[in-house]
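ok so I'm stuck.
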Amino acid sequence: MLGRTTLDTSKSSSSLVNSISNSIKGEVNDLIADVAKTLNIHDFYSAHLLNYCEGYFTPGPLPNKTVDPDKNITQCSNRTALFHFDPTAAIEKELKPGISLADLRWPSTIKDAVHTVEVASKAMFVLYCVGAAATGLALIGAILGVFSDGRAAPLINNPLASLALIALGTASAIASVIMSKVVSEVNKHGDDIGISATKGKTFLGMTWAATVLIAIAALAWIYEFVAHRMR
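replied:
not stuck anymore, here's the structure
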Protein backbone atom coordinates (compact mmCIF):
# COMPACT_ATOMS: atom_id res chain seq x y z
CA MET A 1 0.00 0.00 0.00
CA LEU A 2 1.23 3.45 -0.77
CA GLY A 3 0.19 6.80 0.65
CA ARG A 4 -1.50 5.42 3.74
CA THR A 5 -0.04 5.06 7.22
CA THR A 6 -1.74 4.23 10.49
CA LEU A 7 -0.42 5.03 13.92
CA ASP A 8 -0.63 2.90 17.05
CA THR A 9 -1.27 4.23 20.54
CA SER A 10 -1.12 2.42 23.83
CA LYS A 11 -4.34 1.64 25.61
CA SER A 12 -5.51 4.08 28.26
CA SER A 13 -8.32 4.06 30.77
CA SER A 14 -9.06 7.69 30.07
CA SER A 15 -11.64 8.31 27.34
CA LEU A 16 -10.33 11.85 26.97
CA VAL A 17 -6.84 10.60 26.15
CA ASN A 18 -8.26 8.12 23.65
CA SER A 19 -10.32 10.83 22.01
CA ILE A 20 -7.31 13.12 21.65
CA SER A 21 -5.16 10.27 20.30
CA ASN A 22 -7.75 9.27 17.71
CA SER A 23 -8.10 12.88 16.64
CA ILE A 24 -4.34 13.23 16.15
CA LYS A 25 -4.14 9.96 14.22
CA GLY A 26 -6.98 11.02 11.98
CA GLU A 27 -5.35 14.37 11.17
CA VAL A 28 -1.99 12.72 10.45
CA ASN A 29 -3.57 10.11 8.18
CA ASP A 30 -5.53 12.79 6.33
CA LEU A 31 -2.30 14.72 5.81
CA ILE A 32 -0.54 11.62 4.47
CA ALA A 33 -3.38 10.95 2.05
CA ASP A 34 -3.27 14.56 0.86
CA VAL A 35 0.49 14.33 0.29
CA ALA A 36 0.06 11.12 -1.71
CA LYS A 37 -2.55 12.73 -3.96
CA THR A 38 -0.41 15.84 -4.29
CA LEU A 39 2.44 13.66 -5.54
CA ASN A 40 -0.08 12.04 -7.92
CA ILE A 41 0.48 8.51 -6.62
CA HIS A 42 -2.25 6.04 -5.67
CA ASP A 43 -3.01 4.51 -2.29
CA PHE A 44 -2.36 0.96 -3.44
CA TYR A 45 -1.04 -1.10 -6.34
CA SER A 46 -2.13 -4.72 -6.80
CA ALA A 47 0.16 -6.95 -8.85
CA HIS A 48 -1.31 -9.87 -10.82
CA LEU A 49 0.06 -12.50 -13.16
CA LEU A 50 -0.93 -10.66 -16.35
CA ASN A 51 -1.28 -7.03 -15.21
CA TYR A 52 -1.53 -4.70 -12.23
CA CYS A 53 -4.25 -2.44 -10.86
CA GLU A 54 -4.17 0.77 -8.86
CA GLY A 55 -6.64 2.81 -6.87
CA TYR A 56 -7.61 4.57 -3.67
CA PHE A 57 -9.10 3.52 -0.35
CA THR A 58 -12.71 4.45 0.37
CA PRO A 59 -13.36 6.00 2.74
CA GLY A 60 -9.98 7.66 3.18
CA PRO A 61 -7.41 6.71 5.82
CA LEU A 62 -9.08 5.67 9.06
CA PRO A 63 -7.79 6.50 12.55
CA ASN A 64 -8.41 2.93 13.71
CA LYS A 65 -6.16 0.58 11.74
CA THR A 66 -8.22 -2.45 12.77
CA VAL A 67 -10.90 -1.25 10.38
CA ASP A 68 -9.98 -1.97 6.76
CA PRO A 69 -11.33 0.46 4.14
CA ASP A 70 -12.61 -0.76 0.80
CA LYS A 71 -10.38 -0.70 -2.26
CA ASN A 72 -11.62 1.46 -5.11
CA ILE A 73 -9.74 0.33 -8.23
CA THR A 74 -9.49 3.18 -10.69
CA GLN A 75 -7.35 1.66 -13.43
CA CYS A 76 -5.70 -1.58 -14.54
CA SER A 77 -2.93 -2.05 -17.07
CA ASN A 78 -3.48 -4.08 -20.23
CA ARG A 79 -3.15 -7.83 -19.80
CA THR A 80 0.17 -9.00 -21.20
CA ALA A 81 1.81 -12.40 -21.45
CA LEU A 82 5.09 -12.71 -19.52
CA PHE A 83 4.12 -9.62 -17.50
CA HIS A 84 6.00 -8.57 -14.40
CA PHE A 85 5.14 -5.75 -12.02
CA ASP A 86 7.75 -3.03 -11.64
CA PRO A 87 6.67 -0.77 -8.75
CA THR A 88 9.54 1.60 -9.38
CA ALA A 89 8.48 2.28 -12.97
CA ALA A 90 4.76 2.42 -12.09
CA ILE A 91 5.20 5.08 -9.40
CA GLU A 92 7.88 7.02 -11.26
CA LYS A 93 5.54 7.32 -14.24
CA GLU A 94 2.83 8.90 -12.08
CA LEU A 95 4.94 11.40 -10.17
CA LYS A 96 4.38 15.02 -11.06
CA PRO A 97 7.09 16.80 -13.08
CA GLY A 98 9.95 17.96 -10.92
CA ILE A 99 9.55 15.14 -8.39
CA SER A 100 11.68 12.00 -8.54
CA LEU A 101 11.93 8.81 -6.56
CA ALA A 102 15.17 10.09 -5.10
CA ASP A 103 13.19 12.93 -3.52
CA LEU A 104 10.97 10.32 -1.85
CA ARG A 105 14.01 8.36 -0.63
CA TRP A 106 12.92 5.31 -2.62
CA PRO A 107 14.79 2.27 -1.21
CA SER A 108 17.37 0.80 -3.58
CA THR A 109 16.57 -2.70 -2.31
CA ILE A 110 13.15 -2.50 -3.98
CA LYS A 111 14.84 -1.71 -7.29
CA ASP A 112 17.14 -4.70 -6.81
CA ALA A 113 14.18 -7.01 -6.22
CA VAL A 114 12.51 -6.04 -9.52
CA HIS A 115 14.83 -8.25 -11.61
CA THR A 116 14.13 -11.26 -9.38
CA VAL A 117 10.39 -10.67 -9.71
CA GLU A 118 10.72 -10.36 -13.49
CA VAL A 119 12.47 -13.72 -13.87
CA ALA A 120 10.08 -15.44 -11.46
CA SER A 121 6.97 -13.97 -13.11
CA LYS A 122 8.02 -15.19 -16.57
CA ALA A 123 8.80 -18.66 -15.23
CA MET A 124 5.44 -18.80 -13.44
CA PHE A 125 3.56 -17.78 -16.59
CA VAL A 126 5.19 -20.55 -18.64
CA LEU A 127 4.60 -23.14 -15.93
CA TYR A 128 0.95 -22.17 -15.51
CA CYS A 129 0.44 -22.46 -19.28
CA VAL A 130 2.02 -25.92 -19.29
CA GLY A 131 -0.04 -26.96 -16.27
CA ALA A 132 -3.31 -25.68 -17.74
CA ALA A 133 -2.65 -27.36 -21.10
CA ALA A 134 -1.74 -30.69 -19.50
CA THR A 135 -4.79 -30.52 -17.21
CA GLY A 136 -7.07 -29.81 -20.17
CA LEU A 137 -5.65 -32.70 -22.19
CA ALA A 138 -5.98 -35.01 -19.18
CA LEU A 139 -9.63 -33.98 -18.81
CA ILE A 140 -10.29 -34.75 -22.48
CA GLY A 141 -8.48 -38.07 -22.10
CA ALA A 142 -10.60 -38.94 -19.05
CA ILE A 143 -13.81 -38.25 -20.99
CA LEU A 144 -12.63 -40.39 -23.90
CA GLY A 145 -11.62 -43.10 -21.47
CA VAL A 146 -15.23 -43.48 -20.38
CA PHE A 147 -16.14 -44.69 -23.88
CA SER A 148 -13.11 -46.97 -24.27
CA ASP A 149 -12.16 -50.24 -22.65
CA GLY A 150 -10.59 -48.33 -19.76
CA ARG A 151 -7.02 -49.52 -20.28
CA ALA A 152 -5.80 -46.70 -22.48
CA ALA A 153 -7.05 -43.91 -20.20
CA PRO A 154 -4.59 -44.49 -17.31
CA LEU A 155 -1.71 -44.91 -19.75
CA ILE A 156 -2.46 -41.54 -21.38
CA ASN A 157 -3.69 -39.52 -18.40
CA ASN A 158 -1.06 -40.60 -15.89
CA PRO A 159 1.84 -38.74 -17.59
CA LEU A 160 -0.43 -35.76 -18.40
CA ALA A 161 -1.61 -35.43 -14.79
CA SER A 162 1.93 -35.86 -13.53
CA LEU A 163 3.20 -33.15 -15.88
CA ALA A 164 0.41 -30.81 -14.73
CA LEU A 165 1.29 -31.55 -11.10
CA ILE A 166 4.97 -30.76 -11.63
CA ALA A 167 4.19 -27.52 -13.50
CA LEU A 168 1.51 -26.24 -11.10
CA GLY A 169 3.45 -27.33 -8.02
CA THR A 170 6.61 -25.57 -9.19
CA ALA A 171 4.70 -22.40 -10.12
CA SER A 172 2.93 -22.38 -6.74
CA ALA A 173 6.22 -22.84 -4.91
CA ILE A 174 7.85 -20.00 -6.85
CA ALA A 175 4.87 -17.73 -6.16
CA SER A 176 5.00 -18.49 -2.42
CA VAL A 177 8.75 -17.92 -2.12
CA ILE A 178 8.82 -14.74 -4.22
CA MET A 179 5.82 -13.24 -2.43
CA SER A 180 7.36 -13.88 0.98
CA LYS A 181 10.70 -12.43 -0.07
CA VAL A 182 9.32 -9.32 -1.76
CA VAL A 183 6.82 -8.57 1.01
CA SER A 184 9.55 -8.97 3.62
CA GLU A 185 11.98 -6.67 1.78
CA VAL A 186 9.38 -3.99 1.05
CA ASN A 187 8.10 -3.91 4.64
CA LYS A 188 11.63 -3.92 6.00
CA HIS A 189 13.05 -1.10 3.88
CA GLY A 190 9.92 0.83 2.92
CA ASP A 191 8.54 1.55 6.36
CA ASP A 192 10.40 4.86 6.63
CA ILE A 193 8.55 6.32 3.64
CA GLY A 194 5.15 4.78 4.37
CA ILE A 195 5.29 1.82 1.96
CA SER A 196 4.02 -1.62 2.90
CA ALA A 197 3.18 -4.83 1.05
CA THR A 198 0.88 -7.77 1.71
CA LYS A 199 0.64 -11.25 0.20
CA GLY A 200 -2.13 -12.15 -2.21
CA LYS A 201 -3.70 -14.80 0.02
CA THR A 202 -6.57 -15.46 -2.40
CA PHE A 203 -4.16 -16.16 -5.27
CA LEU A 204 -1.97 -18.41 -3.12
CA GLY A 205 -5.03 -20.28 -1.92
CA MET A 206 -6.26 -20.84 -5.47
CA THR A 207 -2.91 -21.93 -6.90
CA TRP A 208 -2.24 -24.40 -4.07
CA ALA A 209 -5.82 -25.71 -4.24
CA ALA A 210 -5.33 -26.42 -7.95
CA THR A 211 -2.05 -28.17 -7.14
CA VAL A 212 -3.70 -30.37 -4.51
CA LEU A 213 -6.57 -31.29 -6.85
CA ILE A 214 -4.28 -32.25 -9.72
CA ALA A 215 -2.15 -34.23 -7.23
CA ILE A 216 -5.25 -36.22 -6.25
CA ALA A 217 -6.04 -36.80 -9.93
CA ALA A 218 -2.46 -37.95 -10.61
CA LEU A 219 -2.58 -40.41 -7.71
CA ALA A 220 -5.94 -41.71 -8.94
CA TRP A 221 -4.55 -42.37 -12.42
CA ILE A 222 -1.48 -44.07 -10.95
CA TYR A 223 -3.79 -46.33 -8.95
CA GLU A 224 -5.84 -47.11 -12.07
CA PHE A 225 -2.67 -47.89 -14.02
CA VAL A 226 -1.36 -50.27 -11.35
CA ALA A 227 -4.79 -51.88 -10.91
CA HIS A 228 -5.07 -52.64 -14.65
CA ARG A 229 -1.55 -54.12 -14.68
CA MET A 230 -2.44 -56.46 -11.83
CA ARG A 231 -5.61 -57.78 -13.49
